[in-house]
Q: What sequence folds into this?
């Protein structure tokens, strides 16, 4: 059998070369086209009051100077800020065509409906702010594996959050999902979020026992849920990183652990409106950074003069 050589005609190499050098330019032009589609979508949904996106000018060759748009050195779109832009209607269903998009801020509008499956394909996203809208339905953003910050505060989300974890965990630093209607239990949920520092689950319908790793966070806020159970005496270890801890308005019971004294950076502790009983742990007196302490409406006996100031 003779050895056959595969021969490419010269024009093949020229074509390949052209694809390589124009690849960037083609992608940048695609970003511009997608933003013009986004503009058209927003204008159709918002015929009267419009935000700064109305000034995105179709005759500009690059979108990188348009209000709210951020680009990288290759003129690819990396950020879209449409906060406070009077937007009604649902989320634009083609954000995933912007393959370099890392920051998306749609906060403080009147955006409704569920999160489209498209958004879950924006795997480069690092910062996603959907706060203060009327977005509903369950949360399914398990495809956003590069998230650093997710803010869903003040929307109408419901159901369990579990299917998103640990998928979105690897880089997650800040998760704020307060003032929604999320439910279900959160035990183990954030175990594989090694970088998590801020967790705000306040004003939802979460129930069951609390997530046990919370002493590694800087801030935990779970006020106004239906969490219950006792905190074990070993809840707060010597490496406790907590600065703000708000467990108020839940159904926690038992004695509050004296190991809270290990949380030497604590500035604010709110245990109000629970069913804690027993003595107020004297260790609280050794927390030198503490400037806000709320213990009201529990079953605790308040022991005076344990503080040595
Ligand atoms: C999200 O947007 C709201 C309103 O614009 C802002 O107050 C909030 O700080 C943003 N969230 C984060 C984590 O930056
Ligand atoms: C949600 O919490 C983060 C972290 O504490 C904070 O930066 C952000 O401003 C909060 N979002 C809103 C809408 O207040």
A:
């Amino acid at each position: 059998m003779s050895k056959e050589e595969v021969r490419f005609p010269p024009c093949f190499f020229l074509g390949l070369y052209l694809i390589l050098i124009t690849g960037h330019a083609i992608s940048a032009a695609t970003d511009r086209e997608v933003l013009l589609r986004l503009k058209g979508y927003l204008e159709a949904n918002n015929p009267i009051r419009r935000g700064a996106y109305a000034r995105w000018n179709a005759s500009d060759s690059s979108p990188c100077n348009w209000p709210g748009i951020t680009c990288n050195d290759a003129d690819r779109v990396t950020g879209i800020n449409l906060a406070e832009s009077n937007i009604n209607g649902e989320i634009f269903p083609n954000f995933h065509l912007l393959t370099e998009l890392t920051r998306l801020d749609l906060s403080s509008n009147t955006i409704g409906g569920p999160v489209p499956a498209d958004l879950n394909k924006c795997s480069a996203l690092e910062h996603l702010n959907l706060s203060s809208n009327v977005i509903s339905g369950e949360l399914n953003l398990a495809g956003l594996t590069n998230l650093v910050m997710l803010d869903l505060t003040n929307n109408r989300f419901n159901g369990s959050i579990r299917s998103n974890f640990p998928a979105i965990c690897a880089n997650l630093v800040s998760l704020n999902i307060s003032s929604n209607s999320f439910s279900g239990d959160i035990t183990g949920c954030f175990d594989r979020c090694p970088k998590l520092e801020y967790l705000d689950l306040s004003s939802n319908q979460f129930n069951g026992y609390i997530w046990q790793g919370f002493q590694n966070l800087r801030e935990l806020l779970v006020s106004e849920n239906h969490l219950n159970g006792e905190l074990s005496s070993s809840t707060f270890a010597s490496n406790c990183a907590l600065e703000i801890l708000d467990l108020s308005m839940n159904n926690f019971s038992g004695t509050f652990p004296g190991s809270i004294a290990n949380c030497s950076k604590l500035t604010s502790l709110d245990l109000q409106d629970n069913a804690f009983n027993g003595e107020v742990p004297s260790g609280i007196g050794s927390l030198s950074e503490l400037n806000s302490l709320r213990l009201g409406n529990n079953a605790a006996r308040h022991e005076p003069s344990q503080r040595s100031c």
Remarks:
- The CA atoms of residues 40 and 54 lie 9 Å apart.
- The chain has a mean pLDDT of 92.
- The chain has two domains: 10-202, 210-309.
- The pocket of 2-acetamido-2-deoxy-beta-D-glucopyranose (ligand 1) is lined by residues 83, 107-108, 129, 131-132, 149, 151, 174, 176 (CB under 6 Å).
